[in-house]
Amino acid sequence: MRGRAIVGFFVLLAGGWNPANAGGIGDDAGEGTDTIFFGAVKDNRGAAVAGARVNVKFKNMTFVTTTDVTGNYRLSTTIDPDESEVSCSKEGYRQSGTTRRSPSGGAKSPVEIDCTLQRGP
Amino acid sequence: MLRTRATLIGLVAAGTLASSIQAEPISLRYGAAYSTLRSIYSLPITVAEREGFFKREGLDFRIVVPIPGGSDKMIDALHDGTVDITHVATPFLIRKVLRGSDAVAIATEFSNPIYSLVAKPEIKSFSDLKGKLIGFADLSGTISISMRKLLAMHGLKEGDFAVKVLEGTPARLNCLTRGDCDAVALGQPQDMAARAQGFVVLGDSSEATPAYLYTVTAARRSWAEANKDTVVRYLRGLRAAFHFIRDPARQNAVIDIISETSGVSKTVAESVLRLYFAPERGVLPREGEIDMAALARSIAMVAGTDALERPLPAPEAFVDRQYLHAAGIR
């Protein structure tokens, strides 16, 4: 244990560990560098779609959440919103469009994305 | 002659069609908790992805993160169709199976994890933790179970300290560095990093718990049975990743991956590999094989917190090794 401590100490001094990076994506509480996606899923008549799946694709990952009873969703991650793609789905529906509203003032987050589903295969 | 030629052309066309069908990648959705992806515990999957081992097996491998997620939600994601297979810690698999899930472990991802109990600089011993706040992972998971055992070994019982549950080593490290937690359970490489900042490592989980099966890939029996070829391809890709990680000639590439995914320097990443492999501590399987004795110890750990009736369920109830065998892994 003691040997490991000494090795670790010198290794880290040499390595220049950055605690800010270590917060990273693993922080479920979303502290630090959050990107928030939120919005609503509606059908083509404007009615809220509860239980729809919302997918936020980023590189090789897809974050998946579902809408609440009012058709709203909120998803907190640390990904770059400019490199992400949002889609929605529900059995018996097909996606007919998305509307993205970027935050004002050059901020990257929160990003509001509404999704429209249409009944049909 | 014409008939023979037509037959030949037919066979060639059929062969071409078959190969084009075969060339179509097979979709495979792999579930992972948000906290897992940038931790050391995603290493085998990250290596397989980056080195193209799944692609080589003809898989269109995609990582899916259910939100809200967490270790206890991963088996649910199998059942609601969000994912096909998933990363999961064994206690959460065991509990779901005992409640009727048909999920089973199909491969080991990590075993015998090493978690350090790291405290503020002014805390010099276990007894200094009386009345203090300790950051744990999910209370029903093996990290918390082993930490409680470690504390008990050093004279601290339930009620002697307060607990805050924080999912993921980075979240617990933040709690410690902000000063909100007096001590936390940390995995690698953050435990090493915290020590370098002056925090105190009071002990680690290996002092309190024998080697056990930590994280596995799980699938529903019904899904795996219907998609045997896909499962075997996945296991071959995973096996290639373990071979790669253990290959001294590939060490620099593995260090790069740990460094990028954990946000630490390459020097720190290298020290993680030394901790795991020099000497060998059995933290990673050789090929994804499942150690049934280690799984039995995981069941015993769960039994300790959940008051399971004796005799305890056999490890075989939580595992299906036919796919490992089909992939040539023993």
Written overview of the protein:
The complex is a heterodimer of chains A (121) and B (330). Chain A has 121 residues and is α+β, with helices and mostly antiparallel strands. Chain A has a single domain (33-119), classed as Immunoglobulins (Immunoglobulin-like, Sandwich). Helix content of chain A is 16%, strand content 42%. Chain A has 2 helices and 7 strands. In chain A, the strands form 2 sheets. Chain A has a 4-stranded mixed sheet with strand order 4-1-7-6, with no helix packed on it. A 3-stranded antiparallel sheet of chain A has the order 3-2-5, with no helix packed on it. The N and C termini of chain A lie far apart (61 Å). Chain B is α/β, with parallel strands linked by helices. Chain B folds into 2 domains: 25-111 and 212-326, 3-Layer(aba) Sandwich (D-Maltodextrin-Binding Protein, domain 2); 116-207, Periplasmic binding protein-like II (D-Maltodextrin-Binding Protein, domain 2, 3-Layer(aba) Sandwich). Chain B contains 14 helices and 10 strands. Chain B has helices at residues 2-23, 43-50, 53-56, 74-79, 90-98, 142-153, 169-178, 190-196, 221-226, 228-246, 251-262, 266-277, 292-306, 322-326; strands at 26-31, 59-66, 85-89, 103-111, 116-119, 133-136, 162-165, 183-186, 200-204, 213-220. The longest helix of chain B has 22 residues, at 2-23. Chain B is globular, with a radius of gyration of 22 Å. The A-B interface holds A 1, 4-5, 7-9, 11-19, 21-29, 31-32, 53, 60-65, 75-77 and B 34-39, 49, 61-70, 82, 166-171, 173-174, 177, 189-193, 195-197, 201, 203-204, 262-268, 270-271, 274-275.
